[in-house]
Structure formats: structure tokens, C-alpha cells
Design brief:
By secondary structure, this protein is mainly alpha-helical. The protein has a domain at 78-158. It has five helices and four strands. The chain has helices at 6-32, 55-58, 112-116, 121-128, 148-151; strands at 99-100, 106-107, 135-137, 143-145. Strands 1-2 form a two-stranded antiparallel ribbon. It has a two-stranded antiparallel sheet with strand order 3-4. The longest helix has 27 residues, at 6-32. The chain is extended. The protein starts with 5 loop residues before the first helix and ends in a 24-residue tail after the last helix. It binds heme C (4 copies).
């Protein structure tokens, strides 16, 4: 009599075991809550030659939090972004080699997209999906991204408007 139940038992093993494995894997994931932030492959940040590490000058130099026109260094930087903002909304006064998020977390310059994404969340989502900016690589493999700052100068991110060229001269009008 018992023998006729054997196939059922084998079936039960086939289905219940994987189910248990999947369930425990899911429990493990939900126990960790958020998975670690995904890293995106990017080329080196577009620094001017010789400017990085910033600490070569800033180490030991007290941070000056007063908004002002810079005259001794960085004269090329005039902030035209986020009205009322200042350098330390993005840069870290303690260690200038890192950027600072508004929650106080320090991020390396290779991860500046997370800084921009605090205020441009929709664009950061589109960037990750390859809809904004530039993404290359294989569809199911490794992908490379350009950083926001490869295209937008963070201190004055709007593109300069282009002066239109005059229209071409029609052959009939050439005298
Ligand atoms: C909106 C955020 C933001 C603000 C505000 C900001 N910066 Fe930056 N800054 C950045 C980011 C991001 C980079 C990195 C660009 C890169 O990866 O090359 C950068 C780069 C720099 C660099 C390196 C420039 C170079 O030529 O390579 C200097 C110097 C600098 N910032 C100084 C300043 C100063 C001074 C201020 C205030 C007047 C300021 N920044 C305000 C985000 C900001
Ligand atoms: C060659 C030296 C040098 C390097 C390299 C340098 N800085 Fe500076 N930085 C200065 C000086 C000097 C000032 C003060 C300028 C002034 O007050 O007119 C300054 C001012 C600043 C300020 C304004 C706030 C403050 O504390 O005065 C920020 C922000 C800043 N630097 C960020 C950076 C970042 C980010 C880098 C690296 C990407 C960098 N600097 C690299 C010399 C340097
Ligand atoms: C603290 C908030 C904040 C952060 C951080 C921030 N932005 Fe912005 N950004 C703004 C605001 C507000 C505006 C619109 C007002 C303006 O143009 O000044 C803006 C405008 C822009 C524009 C559009 C400019 C135009 O007029 O077409 C670009 C591009 C841009 N940001 C890029 C960036 C990049 C790249 C970063 C990261 C390096 C960044 N932003 C970080 C607040 C922020
Ligand atoms: C490959 C270059 C490139 C990269 C990388 C890039 N952008 Fe842009 N971005 C553009 C261009 C081009 C526009 C359109 C400018 C226009 O229409 O004037 C734009 C427009 C914007 C605007 C203005 C949007 C609007 O609706 O007015 C913001 C803000 C912005 N980008 C933020 C970002 C942020 C944040 C990142 C990174 C997460 C990023 N961009 C990465 C090229 C780029």
C-alpha cells in the first residue's frame, strides 16, 4: 500500500525543497532591508590638471564659510546655480577631497551623481536608466556612464545659448 505514495513524496521533495530555499533567500534579503547602493562605472572626474587632491592646499587651511568673490584662487568659479547656495552645500569643509550630501554623508568625486540627485531626483533616475546623459556598454553586461559633471559645469550648469549662424547664401544671390 505504502509504495503508491512514493511518487507523491518524491514530488513533494522536488517542490518543497526549492520553495524553502527561495523563501529563505527572500527572508535574507528582506532582513537586510536596502541592498548596498549600486556603483556605476564612470571615467575619471573631469578635473583641471593639478587641482586634485584638493588637500594639497586645503589641509590645515581653515574653511572660510563667508560667501564672497574668490580672489586668491579659483577665480574662474562664480556660482550661478541654486540661488542663495554656497560652496559648502556640496563641498566638505573638513576634507576638501570629498563631496558632502545634505545628510552629512561624504561621497568621492566619482559619485557626484548622488550629490546632484538630491535636488534633481527625476534626472538621476533617468540617468541610471540610460535616458538622460550618456550610457555605453552591452545590453546585459557592464555599462559605463558619463558623470553629470562631464556635461554640466556644477558651478554654472546651464548651457550657454548658441549664436545662430547666418543662413547659407543661395547661388542665385551670389553676385
Ligand atoms: C552644486 C554643488 C557645488 C557647489 C555649490 C560648488 N561646487 Fe565646486 N564642484 C562640485 C563638483 C561636483 C565638482 C567636481 C567636478 C569634477 O568631478 O570634476 C566641483 C569641482 C570644484 C573644483 C575643481 C575645479 C576644476 O577646475 O577641476 C573647485 C576648485 C571647486 N569645485 C570649488 C568650488 C567653490 C570655490 C565653490 C563656491 C564658490 C563651489 N565649488 C561650489 C560641486 C559644487
Ligand atoms: C593650489 C592650492 C589650491 C588647490 C589645489 C585647491 N584650492 Fe581651494 N582654495 C585655495 C585658496 C588659496 C582659497 C581661498 C581663496 C580666496 O579666499 O580668495 C581656496 C578656497 C576654496 C573654497 C572656498 C571656501 C574656503 O574655504 O575658502 C572652496 C570651496 C575650495 N577652495 C574648494 C576646493 C576644491 C574642491 C579643490 C579641489 C578640487 C580645491 N579647492 C583645490 C587654494 C587651493
Ligand atoms: C541643493 C540643490 C541642488 C543640487 C545639490 C544641485 N542642483 Fe542643479 N539646480 C538646482 C536648482 C534650484 C536649479 C534651478 C535654478 C537655477 O538654475 O539656478 C538647478 C538647475 C540646474 C540645471 C539647469 C540649469 C538651466 O538653467 O538650464 C542643471 C543642468 C543642473 N542644475 C545640474 C546640476 C548638477 C550637475 C548637479 C551636481 C553637481 C546639481 N545640479 C546639483 C538645485 C541643485
Ligand atoms: C552626455 C551629457 C549629459 C550628461 C552626462 C548629463 N546631462 Fe543633463 N543635460 C544634458 C543636455 C544636452 C541637456 C539639455 C540642455 C538644454 O536643453 O538646454 C541637459 C539638461 C539637464 C537639466 C535641465 C533639465 C530641464 O528640464 O530643464 C538638468 C537639471 C540636468 N541636465 C541635470 C543632469 C544631472 C543631475 C545629470 C547626472 C545625473 C546629468 N544632467 C547628466 C546633457 C547631459
Amino acid at each position: 500500500m505504502m509504495r503508491s505514495f512514493q511518487p507523491l513524496r518524491i514530488l513533494a521533495r522536488i517542490f518543497i525543497l526549492p520553495a524553502a530555499v527561495i523563501l529563505s533567500a527572500q527572508l535574507a534579503v528582506s532582513a537586510e532591508h536596502a541592498p548596498p547602493a549600486k556603483k556605476f562605472l564612470v571615467p575619471p572626474p573631469p578635473f583641471s590638471p593639478g587641482i586634485f587632491p584638493c588637500s594639497q592646499c586645503h589641509q590645515g587651511m581653515p574653511a572660510n564659510r563667508t560667501p564672497r568673490k574668490l580672489e586668491m584662487m579659483h577665480q574662474d568659479i562664480t556660482l550661478k546655480h541654486m540661488p542663495g547656495g554656497w560652496c559648502f552645500d556640496c563641498h566638505n569643509p573638513g576634507n576638501r577631497d570629498k563631496l558632502k550630501l545634505s545628510n552629512g554623508r561624504l561621497v568621492p568625486f566619482e559619485e557626484s551623481y548622488n550629490l546632484c540627485g538630491q535636488c534633481h531626483g527625476t534626472i538621476l533616475r533617468e540617468w541610471k536608466a540610460g535616458l538622460h546623459g550618456k550610457r555605453t556598454g552591452s545590453w546585459n553586461g557592464e555599462k559605463q556612464y558619463l558623470l553629470c559633471v562631464h556635461c554640466h559645469w556644477p558651478h554654472e550648469p546651464a548651457f550657454k545659448s548658441l549664436t545662430p549662424m547666418p543662413p547659407p547664401v543661395r547661388p542665385a544671390d551670389i553676385k
